[in-house]
Design goal:
This is Small RNA 2'-O-methyltransferase. With 482 residues, this protein is of the alpha/beta class. Helices cover 34% and strands 22% of the residues. The protein is built from 19 helices and 14 strands. Helix 4 runs antiparallel to helix 7 and helix 7 crosses helix 9.
Amino acid sequence: MLLTITTTAEPATDLGFLLHKHPERVQEFGQSFGTATVFYPEAGEQRCTAALMLEVDPIALVRSRGRNSPDFSLSQYVNDRPYAASSLLAVALADVFRTARAGRCKARPELPGTPLPLELRLPALPCRGAPELARRLFEPLGWEVDARAVPLDERFPEWGDSRYIGLTLRGSARLQDALNHLYVLLPVLDDGKHYWIAPDEVDKLIRGGEGWLRDHPERGLIARRYLGRRWSLARTALARLAELGDETEDELEPAVEEDITEEAATAEAGTTTEEAEAPKPKALNVRRREAVLAKLAELGAASVIDLGCGQGELVGALLARPAFTRVGGMDVSPMALTIAARKLRLERMPDAKRARLTLFQGALTYADKRLSGYDAAVLMEVIEHVDPPRLPALEHVVFGRARPHHVLVTTPNIEHNVRYEFLTGLRHSDHRFEWNRAEFTAWARGVAGRYGYEVAFEAIGDDDPEVGPPTQMGVFTRDQRS
């Protein structure tokens, strides 16, 4: 297989720094299944192309087969299907461009964070789903996709197309992101891997999909295919990918796609037809949002600010209710706010609704006049992303300076983590801590006492009799005398 990466950002030879591969050298990297070679067909100031060529050695592949790998007997030598060529290329890419995928460049540390005009080409790529699937996977990531089916034989068009496509991606992106897109999505297109899929594949998917997979419209399909249609692993991956720890239950269930019938999907998931037809419980993130909205309505808040609004899910729900006459959203990430504006369709929003909304960038550990004047503030799955030594600063900014009448704080209950299969550690890679119920209660009561508030506690999600609910909420109300 062949992958070429081209840039026209001047000086284009900076591509060599990013890839940690010198343009004047041909380098070979031995793999357990063959040889990966990196070379530069062109390397100029205005245009530079790096090529990764993977030559698969079927004998080496058979000899390196692990104890748990499937045995394809003679077909290992005469049929390319067992080799899962895209999976092999993804593994070689991860090995050869490991530093570039991590976004590190000691010689030019400013380069990895800079978007570049890129063109990625794979002239022959296994794809189970036709060119349309490639467009569904790559276009939401901002790529201009040119995907064309490769005919079985150009001399005999009546034979139809092969299962291979020629794929070209064009766009502006960080090289780190482009490589991670390929690393995750190449095996998804092929719908196969050349090695046994163990639970640690979930970690690989989470790392490779960081920053983009959670909001991909096809994340359910991606997780299922990447994890070999092992539904328990897909459930775990989707739960960890979701914002602040949880995902919609719809996407944790195996979907019916391509040649899998509804009966087969139901049987493989281990459920009966009656169970499959039973109403599915609402996802935790939906229940959390609904609980916050209901509590705000109960409190009679007319103006609400979502602190740490992320990509605008709660902001959108607030705007959908005319009773909330003023809605604010603040986040430390400009990228999250850009995505929020796109999801909210800010440019096409009616003037009356747009007048109710304020979105702005800021940090919760610094006093900001824009936070004041709201009836209620919401910190939904936010405090656990703050380093513990900085929590007092957040408390001062929200409860001491902004001083809304009400503050709603939700956070994960770490005791409930034992109910998540395969989860090790915290629910999200960016969590600095997760509290149990006693720890959250102690913190909330301490804050309330210091800043003149009263606090009540509510459970969100199923309240497990042994480990409590998955999410805990503190409802702070300012003492009118303070």
